[in-house]
Amino acid sequence: MTQFLNYLVLGLTRGSLYALIALGYTLVYGVLQLINFAHSEVFMSGAFGSYLVISAVVGNGKGTSSWEVPFVMLLGVVTGAVTAGAIAWSLERVAYRPLRRRNAPKLAFLISAIGASFFLSQLFGKMFNRFTNNQFPPFFNDNSVAFTIAGAQVRVIQVVDILAALVMMVLLDRLVNKTKLGRSIRAVSEDAPTAALMGIDIDRTISRTFVIGGLLGGAAGFLFGLNFSFFNTMGFLPGVKAFAAAVLGGIGNIRGAMIGGLLLGIVENIIPTLPWVGTEWTDVVAFIVLVLVLMFRPTGILGERLGRAA
Amino acid sequence: MTTADSRALAKRLLACLVGGLVLAVMWGPQEGSQNDYYFELRTSLGFPRVLIFLGIGVVVFLAMTFWPVLRPFLSRPGVWPFLSGLLAVLAGQTLMHWYDPLGDGKFGTVATAVSQTKGISALTSAYFGWLAWTELALVVVLCAVGIALRLRLAAWIGGALAVIAAVLTWYAQHSVVAKGGGIDHSLGWGAVVVGYLVIAFAAGVIALSDAQVATGRAFADRLLGWRPGLPLVIAGVVLGLLAFYVGRWFAPSSTQYNTDFGGLHAVFAPTALASWAMAYLSWAGWVLLPVAVVLAGIAAYLRSRPLAWVAAAVGTLAAIYTLATLYEFSKIAARVAPTFGSTWQNLGTGGWMACGAFLLLGGAGYVAATAESAPQQGSEEAATVSPAAPAQVADEARSRSFLTAPGAARSLVIATIAFALFYPPTATSFWQSVLVSEIGIYVLLAVGLNVVVGWAGLLDLGFIAFFAIGSYTTAYLTNSLPIHPPSWLVLPPLAAIPFAVVICLIAGVLLGAPTLRLRGDYLAIVTLGFGEIIRIIANNADAITNGSRGTAVDPSRGVNNVPHPSIHIGPLHITWGLNQLQYWYLLLVLVVIVVVLFRRLENSRLGRAWAAIREDEVAAQATGMNTFRVKLLAFAIGASTSGLAGVFFGSYIGFFTPDNFVLNNSILVVAYVVFGGMGSLPGAMAGAALLTWLPEFLKNQVPAPDRQMWIGAVVLLMMIFRPAGLLPARRRRIELSADHLEEASSAETIAVPSHVGGAV
Fold first, then answer.
1. Confidence label for B516 from pLDDT (cuts 50, 70 and 90)
2. Which of A262, A307, B199, B649 is the most buried (most CB within 10 A)?
3. Residue B388: how many CB atoms within 10 A of its CB?
């Protein structure tokens, strides 16, 4: 039972990060009906961006007193988000907008995104390093336990992850449902030409959608790097799984992405603990779940609310 | 200037400066360590260095801003050949190798070596010291003046200087090789020579042309279409002259293994060379080339069909004669210098170049014989355009295909065949292995995926899984896995082909049946998942696949010792060993078979059904088509091609692990297909060949870890500036160039000529 709970917490942590990344996929899919394959690199850039600032602020992390830790974390989230937002904005300008102007076939977008993805991950590798185990400076005790449920220890960092993800999701939900920008995003994903007739600047809306997705992804990148490690190809696997999560929840559907992410994180962490499976099958579980859902409910759990269904 | 204008300008300047910074980082030193993350950033953006890249940004900004002023100059005659020649010269003098035995034998390295060497001719040391760059600068300035001011004299002088520079380059490089000795495969000097000759040609165009403007395409059309086959004759003449005067031929002497064709006769006189091969060396070779050239040239010029057939026959026979002579050489080579190489290896470049030249000349005859009577008036008219109606011309040029000149496409195919047949034996063993293990295999994969992605429009991101299935099937049938087949089922690798193809076909159907009802993007992610599942299963199922080698490379893990292919049918015994060439020709046969089959498929009823589904599935269904079955067929056919490639890969490489089948490879194949031009068979092949060749080429030019970065940048730029791909399919190109819906629909209706339209 304790072990089960441990894995459940682990699943929730990973799942909330997947959900944050999945939101980026789902938002872009909503407005463009395109898979933004370079989003995994946007996520990666967040980790490196926040590292730049954090290591400048806390040095080797030894002298950080405990009251400073929340602020440093907040700083990390913000700088990661800003870096990734900037990268996402440039990505849209460089890899997507010229093709959209030209009315290129859908696959051309995909390929330019793949090119951008290769380019970004290797550029970051060249700029920083290509080791696969970079760590943030240890400015807090990584193993400190926040509380214990039925013998399962929940670490502080896990609480931070889940809380941060929840806060950002709530903010995003408010943004999309209550603000003017959110309304224009919904309008563009509903019917772009009509939205343009209603006076919505489509280019600007799309660009801002990318930035919002980038902000969330960058924050996730920082949290991911803080939890595990960060490196220039870190985006690939979480990116693929987050995309699977977005599809699982119903791509184009914001709440679906949140649920899909959490669900995928939990399932892929719990099923391998069953006696006749094993942790080496974790990645397979994620994909099999995806295939099954798509076969029996192709529009995902919540359906495609934001985007068109056909 | 309004504020909106100045804001746009400021944005553009900012973008250019940022681009300059990114370029500075891309071109920077290698990455830092874990103790010093910022090393690369600090160095690449260091103070004096960053100014250069910001300067590049400013230049780009100025070029973009003053583009309307520059543009008329760019459409003047001779500008494009001039610029491409300049690019070739610059690439040759900065990126490419000049002298292999020096290791990093780039121009600068050779120049340093020359300056330290005593007893080299004054001209050569001057060339490497200062003359090369001065000459280039002079030529550029003169040609630029000629273009900008329409000064014929400047263009004439520039052209003459360019010819002199080409000769000097050739002379200087050869004196370096003569001084330094050793075997030299470098191409840098060749690129410079060709570049200078192109510049000289451009200077001639600048000096001679009366036209105010010339569109490059009309010019190319005129050049290629003036006399069908003539471009091939010219290529054949150049290659033939190189073969007989510059190329090195095998010579069985104890001091040297290579000599000129002129000296061959004397060298082979004491050996027991067959008399007919001796005849080739003493006179037949010398006679055949001019005969073939004159025949093909006259046939092409006079458009005389009978003569053209004679030229084709003569060229082909001469190529076979040359090949037979080379075979006689190789017999002697095996006796004289058995350590020097196996049967067909290391026979020098000259013989193969001669084969290629004769094949080109024969091909020229064939093209001249089969060319339709040219639409003369169209191309002649387009070449000298009156400035009054440029828009009309642009429209016309856009609506026509890339190589519409009669015989142009066929010439290109013949040139490609000659290259594929006769280039590999002259390449270094490194390039031979690249040709097989990278280029060849990925071309085959791209041709297969083109069916799925390009024709049926289904995005398959798990294509490499079928490749893996093919490889593991081969390993199983050749008894190389921990689980063993029944003894009656143990097969040689080539006999495993039908089994692997059928198994991949079944796997394709099994995957496709539940998933093909899904919409495009879902299909992408499901196939991606499938690819990963196959790989992870192969990784984890140790008892069946022997797992992977892991990070601590353990040679006993993974699949080992898959036998190499062999054929034993009646009197025919071929065993493939370690010689890369053998695999290349086997692969060539496989690719040709697949391409011929697919070419038939493309215009068949099934091919048109795929196009219909790709364009509009609902409409296709409404015509009574079983879209599901048609899609499944595309999926299964693509999968089986991938399986075929897998069989080849497994038996070629001998050992493999699941790490050979990562998702990255699937994505790369998709990138190759789309880069080359979706739905276009030549495009898919060209895309795969180019993008697999590029990283290997870059291996010498940029640090190995950076290669993916440059590839990514190339793919990205390609998609931004040419989203239809390198050699777009006819249908797609029409779609993309049509600005209006009406045009698009009319283009769609004429895309299938009425006479091929049957019942669907």
1. confident
2. B199
3. 8
User: How do residues B67-78 score in pLDDT, each as one tens digit?
Assistant: 888 887 877 778
User: b or e along A266-287 (b: 16 or more beta carbons within 10 Å of the residue's beta carbon)?
Assistant: bbbbbbbbeeeeeeebbbbbbb
Best mutation target among B525, B528, B615 (most A Cβ atoms within 10 Å) is B525
End-to-end CA distance of chain B: 60
pLDDT of res. A304: 67
Q: Which of B232-236, B295-299, B577-581 has the lowest mean pLDDT?
A: B577-581
Q: Return the pLDDT at A22.
A: 93
Provide, as residue numbers in chain A, all residues whose Cβ is less than 8 Å from the Cβ of B529: 244, 286-288, 290-291
Question: In this complex, do A251 and B521 lie within 8 Å of one another by their Cβ atoms?
Answer: yes
Nearest C-alpha of chain A: how many angstroms from B217? 22
Residue B735 phi, psi (nearest 5)? -60, -45
Model confidence at B595, pLDDT cuts 50, 70, 90, reads very high
Rounded to an integer, the average pLDDT of B632-660 is 91
Residue B253: its pLDDT value, please?
Answer: 64
Q: Which residues on adjacent β-strands are paired with residue B567?
A: B574
Tokens of B510: 């099994």
Interface test with B, best of A34, A93, A119, A131 (most B CBs within 10 A): A119
- B contacts of A106 (beta carbons < 8 Å): 520
CB of A226 within 8 A of CB of A139?
Answer: no
Closest chain B residue by Cα to residue A90: B15
The complex scores an ipTM of 0.88
> For position B735, what pLDDT does the model report?
57
The model's pLDDT over A110-140, given as tens digits with 9 standing for 90+, comes to 888 888 998 999 899 888 888 888 888 888 8
C-alpha dist (Å) from residue B6 to B16, B65, B66, B562, B679: 15, 11, 14, 67, 43
Residue A308: pLDDT band (50, 70, 90) is very low
Look at residue B97 and give its three-state secondary structure. strand
In chain B, the domains with their CATH numbers are 3-65 (no CATH), 73-214 (1.20.140), 222-383+402-426 (1.20.140), 429-728 (no CATH)
pLDDT in tens, B18-34: 999 999 888 878 777 77
Per-residue pLDDT at B677 = 84
Instruction: With H, G, I as helix, E, B as strand and everything else as coil, classify residue B244.
Output: helix
**Terminal alpha carbon distance of chain A:** 44
DSSP labels, chain A:
-HHHHHHHHHHHHHHHHHHHHHHHHHHHHHHHS---TTHHHHHHHHHHHHHHHHHHHHTTSTT--GGGHHHHHHHHHHHHHHHHHHHHHHHIIIIIHHHHHHT--HHHHHHHHHHHHHHHHHHHHHHS---S-B-----S-TT-EEEEETTEEEEHHHHHHHHHHHHHHHHHHHHHHHSHHHHHHHHHHH-HHHHHHTT--HHHHHHHHHHHHHHHHHHHHHHHHHHS-B-TTTTHHHHHHHHHHHHHH-TT-HHHHHHHHHHHHHHHHHGGGSTTS-GGGHHHHHHHHHHHHHHH-TT-SS--SSS---
pLDDT digits (tens, 9 = 90+) for B727-750: 877 666 565 555 444 444 433 343
CB spacing of A112 vs B719 below 8 angstroms: yes
Residues linked to residue B575 through DSSP beta bridges, in sequence order: B566
B332-341, B409-418, B648-657: segment of lowest average pLDDT: B332-341
Output the average pLDDT for chain A: 87
C-alpha closest to that of B559 among B623, B631, B493: B493
Q: Which residue of B has its CA nearest to A239?
A: B525
Closest approach of A303 to chain B, Cα-based (Å): 13
Nearest to B260 by CA among B277, B272, B240, B246: B246
